[in-house]
């Protein structure tokens, strides 16, 4: 199976480095994505849109043998991007895995609007995040994260998500809860909270707890990899 992994804000494809070997050892072909404008800190991000990021993931899907289906794995803001890619290619995706994030619906946003500086969004000070977000992210991991972080294009958090194909709701989803629990997520869904409303329309959703902070690819990478493997194994 080809597994396409889409990072969230401030991260490139290398952020999956400790997850990939477990997937590869299980026989899967991994495709970690470095989204447009995220190849280096010096890249020009001023004109990059949310649609540019979605189309980059769609190209990864199209690069796979058309006789095969793929699994899409998204983290945080990458969940909304993956959901839009599912909308573009619903017949090519066998499952979407959302880690610490939600499949944002049509007319919504894929991420919170963090402070913008010159058309891009740098990684904020840690004080911006809650204790639950930072759980497991010790001083060494924080330093490593900040060193590798790349500002994200500002329009990723400001552009409106546009979806059109209702067949996206036929693609099964695994929601991996990290800094919140699946019980909390189910409660938000039951209360029809806007940010999770798309879950109510998806026909098959599996909920998995992976207690840690917002970045399990750094704090619990092997456990995250095994959770992804378990999701891939679902019919």
What can you see in these coordinates?
- The protein contains 9 helices and 8 strands.
- The chain has 235 residues and is of the alpha/beta class.
- It has a single domain (2-232), classed as Alpha/Beta hydrolase fold, catalytic domain (Rossmann fold, 3-Layer(aba) Sandwich), CATH 3.40.50.
- The relative contact order is 0.19.
Question: Topology, please?
Answer:
Layout: E1 2-6, H1 20-25, E2 29-32, H2 50-62, E3 70-75, H3 77-88, E4 93-99, E5 120-121, H4 131-134, H5 139-148, E6 152-153, H6 155-158, E7 173-177, H7 182-190, E8 205-209, H8 216-219, H9 221-232
Using the coordinates shown, work out and report the CATH topology: Rossmann fold
| Strand residues, percent | 15-25%
**What Rg do the Cα atoms give?**
16 Å
Strand adjacency order, main sheet = 2-1-3-4-7-8
**Mean of the pLDDT scores?**
97
The domain tally reads: 1
In CATH, what is the homologous superfamily?
A: Alpha/Beta hydrolase fold, catalytic domain
In DSSP terms (H or I, runs of 4 or more residues), the helix count works out at 9
Q: What's the total count of β strands?
A: 8
| SS class | alpha/beta
**Unreliable runs, pLDDT <50, ≥5 residues?**
none
Helix % is 25-40%
Sheet with most strands: 6 strands, parallel
Organism: Streptoalloteichus hindustanus
Domain AB hydrolase-1: 3-226
Pfam families: Abhydrolase_6
GO molecular function: catalytic activity
């Amino acid at each position: 199976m080809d597994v396409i992994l889409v990072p969230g804000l401030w991260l490139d494809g290398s952020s999956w480095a400790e997850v990939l070997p477990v997937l590869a050892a299980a026989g899967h072909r991994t495709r970690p994505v470095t989204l447009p404008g995220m190849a280096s800190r010096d890249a020009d991000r001023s004109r990059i849109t949310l649609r540019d990021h979605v189309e980059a993931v769609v190209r990864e899907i199209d690069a796979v043998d058309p006789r095969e289906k793929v699994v899409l794995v998204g983290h945080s803001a990458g969940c909304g991007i993956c959901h839009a890619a599912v909308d573009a290619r619903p017949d090519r995706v066998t499952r979407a895995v959302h880690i610490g994030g939600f499949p944002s619906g049509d007319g919504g946003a894929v991420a919170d609007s963090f402070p913008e500086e010159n058309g891009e969004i740098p990684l904020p000070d840690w004080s911006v995040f809650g204790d639950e977000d930072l759980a497991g992210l010790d001083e060494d991991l924080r330093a490593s994260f900040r060193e590798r972080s790349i500002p994200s294009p500002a329009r990723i958090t400001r552009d409106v998500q546009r979806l059109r194909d209702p067949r996206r709701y036929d693609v099964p989803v695994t929601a991996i809860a990290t800094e919140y629990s699946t019980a909390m997520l189910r409660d938000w869904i039951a209360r029809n909270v806007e940010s999770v409303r798309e879950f109510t329309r998806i026909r098959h959703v599996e909920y998995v707890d992976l207690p840690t902070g917002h970045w399990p690819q750094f704090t619990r990478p092997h456990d995250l990899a095994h959770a992804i493997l378990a999701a891939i194994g679902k019919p």
